[in-house]
Every structure is written in structure tokens, then in C-alpha cells.
Design brief:
Length: 221
């Protein structure tokens, strides 16, 4: 049973979704922290009082506003919280879609659930909390499919380089000059075109834009 929750989130509009979920699930107490340092301090204080939180809900990114902080992002907060309260449940609620990072957090048993901020995040957040209440992890199927797809295709360093250059704004016919300058082989335009075509065919994409989005979402760039 999840009765006491702390939410680390610096965007007020996102807190509305969380508040609705907490109310719908009749969570007895939920507190907010707009900074990672504050969230960690509240968790430590609750432990000292013998009234620990059951669940931490945190974003992955926090905007800097000039306030000095020791912890500046969600991943560092998660690890700091795990160090002081290993048994707390942790749910990521974030607009940042970083499958590789999130998958590693699950693999290392650092988080228990992930929900992406989106149009229907209230529904998914509720499903995630219900799963956690039953002692289950919440690992979205779409995330699992994306990680599986990126893991089944073995990108070479050359692949990542040319896709990264496209993502940075290079035109395809400008890439060979960069490759030659960096002494990367093969460096001909035909080699670049052929390799990109092979990758697109293998992953089922019709254009380079889809490929760039996929690699970015998979944390490869």
C-alpha cells in the first residue's frame, strides 16, 4: 500500500496530473519538492521521524534558476535517495525519453516504474502506482520494444558518427569531407549513402529523419 509520496518536479502544470492521480488513488499524504536537494532533505527528515515515504516520483531534468544545488538532475537524486533509503519505491515521470538510461536504471534495480509525460499520463501514472502497490514493476511495453529494437541491431562507431552528423545538421553530401578530415574510413559519399540505406532497411525506416529520431530516443547520439 502506498500511503505517503514525495514528488520532485519543478513544473507546476505537471503537478496537476500527479495531484489528480494521488486524489483518485486516495493517497493519504503527498508532498512536493521543486528542487532535488529539497526532496532529499525531506526524505531524510521523514526517516529521522520514523515516518518514511513509500514512494518518490521524480522527473529526470530540472531547470536551473540560479538557486545553488548539490543535486541537479533526477538520476543523481535517485542514486542519493537509494543511498539513504534503499527500500523506497521510485517512479520516473518525465518528458525526457531516454530509453537507454532508463533501461539501465531498471537493470541496476535503481527504479521501479517509468511513465512518460504525455497526453494520457494520468491514466498511465495510475496504472504504474497500482502495479507498485501490488509489488510489481511498471515497465511500459513501448519502452521495452524500443530498447529491444536498438539492442538487436549492432550499430558500429561509423554508423553512430554519420547519424550524429546528420542530426547535427550536416547534409549527406557534406559528411565525406568531415570523415576525411578526421581520417575516418570509408569516407566516400557512396559509402555513406550505402550504409545509411542498409541501416534504414534493417530497422524498417523510410528516411533519415526517422533514423535520427530513433537513435536519439534510444540514447545513441
Amino acid at each position: 500500500m502506498i500511503d505517503k509520496v514525495i514528488i520532485a518536479e519543478d513544473q507546476e502544470f505537471a503537478n496537476l496530473s500527479v495531484q489528480k492521480t494521488m486524489d483518485d488513488l486516495q493517497v493519504k499524504q503527498y508532498d512536493y519538492a521543486f528542487y532535488c536537494d529539497d526532496a532529499l532533505a525531506k526524505i531524510k527528515l521523514a526517516l529521522q521521524k520514523g515516518e518514511p515515504y513509500d514512494l518518490l516520483i521524480t522527473d529526470l531534468s530540472f531547470e536551473e534558476d540560479g538557486t545553488p544545488q548539490n543535486i541537479n538532475d533526477g538520476i543523481d537524486l535517485i542514486r542519493a535517495v537509494r543511498a539513504v533509503q534503499p527500500g523506497i519505491l521510485i517512479l520516473i515521470l518525465s518528458g525526457q525519453h531516454r530509453p537507454a538510461d532508463i533501461h539501465n536504471l531498471f537493470e541496476n534495480k535503481e527504479v521501479d516504474a517509468y511513465v512518460r509525460k504525455a497526453r494520457h499520463d494520468v491514466k498511465e501514472l495510475k496504472a504504474a502506482m497500482q502495479a507498485l502497490s501490488k509489488g510489481q514493476q511498471y515497465y511500459p511495453r513501448a519502452l521495452a520494444q524500443l530498447v529491444k529494437q536498438s539492442n538487436t541491431y549492432e550499430f558500429t562507431d561509423f554508423d553512430i558518427t554519420i547519424i550524429r552528423l546528420l542530426n547535427e545538421g550536416y547534409q549527406q553530401n557534406e559528411i565525406p569531407a568531415y570523415l576525411k578530415q578526421q581520417h575516418i574510413k570509408p569516407s566516400s559519399l557512396s559509402s555513406v549513402e550505402k550504409r545509411l540505406s542498409q541501416i534504414r532497411d534493417e530497422l524498417g525506416f523510410s528516411n533519415n529523419q526517422q533514423l535520427m529520431v530513433f537513435c536519439s530516443n534510444a540514447g545513441l547520439l
